[in-house]
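Minimal example, chain plus pyridoxal-5'-phosphate.
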Amino acid sequence: MPDTSVLHHAAQRAARHYEALDHLPVAARASYGELRARFDRPLPDRAEDPIRVVDDLMDDSLDGLVGAGGPRFFGWVIGGSTPGAIAADWIMSSWDQNAAIYQCSPAAAVAEEVAGAWLKDLLRLPSDASFAMVTGCQMAHFTALAAARHRLYIDRGIDVEKDGLFGAPRVRVITGDHRHESLIRAIRYLGLGAGSVEQVALDADGRIDLTALEAALDADPAAPTIVCLMAGDLNTGAADPFREACAAAHARGAWVHVDGAFGLWMNASPSRRGILEGVELADSWATDGHKWLQLPYDNGFAFVRDAQAHHDSMAMTAGYFIAADGSGRDQVNWNPEWSRRPRGMVTYAALRCLGRDGVAELVDEACRLADRLVTGLGELPGCEVVAPARMNQGLVRFLAADGDHDAFTDAVTDAIRAEGTAWFGASTWKGRRVMRISVCNHRTTDADIDRTLDAVGRVLAGMG
Ligand SMILES: Cc1ncc(COP(=O)(O)O)c(C=O)c1O
């Protein structure tokens, strides 16, 4: 039997690092040059001791890591990982299961089937929708929109899986101008072309403008059309008016897809799900597990109302396939990948560890703490709230004595990261530089918000 002492050693060191995240500086400290000097060794000719390799890996990386799993990381929309989910992920690696087809790992296929049904229940999506567990929301867009492409073309007598896009009419993709770039990449991968995307205006509240949407749909009603809606704008947390937008799109034969990378999780909270009213009327949904569900990377989910279109856009066979036992699920028929990790097992374990109430509490807490943080920042001298917290997102900026608020906002955001207590990202919103706030970690507490506000206050005082 191989020596497994490195597994025990790594588990202990990894657990200690996870515990230390509360105290470690959140920003990476090491420069590119320092990291290069540490990692850039000659490829060894002979085997090295795995314990030594793991120790080097952890020691060389430590100050080059961003504390994204810790409680005061407020950049992008990242999410942490819960101990139960991490443990399940480790076990998956040690089992080395290939969750491509049922016969490769029957247990993985069944766990995935159950976890998929649980997710639909939790997110209040149609129980007969199909699903796929992919690497992230971008690939969930790709998977869902492959089903959309199939349906729109097959209904026009075009078999795109067989004949490709040659000679096919152009698909129109209509979005609000708050769409995430990952959607555009998915559209590029599908051969639909970024040039097929038509952006319509948002209303004053940052939601897709229904009059503009209807006008865009009416501009070419015969064209195969996909409307992409947002459940959670990355900057402001705004959610589109799903009921009305779905009605307008469906009346004109369009497919409606929802980017709910983080925002779809509002549906898991009884007190907050009103913001997504009507989202279940769409045709497909994409979301992430590695954001609000606190799964380790990489976990995203696609759901498709038209299960047949989903299946027909992905399904394949090969001479060496072994038929699934009974009605067991061959994941390859729903996913773009072939060999893959048993993601469903990790999702299954995480959902059991949290429970329905635990997920709701996670969502509610993150939203409450985001509100506290954005409001508290806005009370600091020289800080202006640009977008109050909606869901778990908000924006602020810092006002400079010389009037160059953009440069000052970037400088303050950089200085906060350098101080090390908390991590925020910068962005441009409506032509202004802003600091983005996203609270998406189960470890964040009121004490973390207090520590962060104190730190930002100190940084501002030092720059004033
Ligand atoms: C709104 C939104 N959509 C899509 C994505 C892409 O998700 P992923 O990185 O998991 O592919 C993100 C990621 O931040 C996002 O915030």
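The two ends are 64 Å apart (CA to CA). The CA atoms of residues 6 and 441 lie 29 Å apart.
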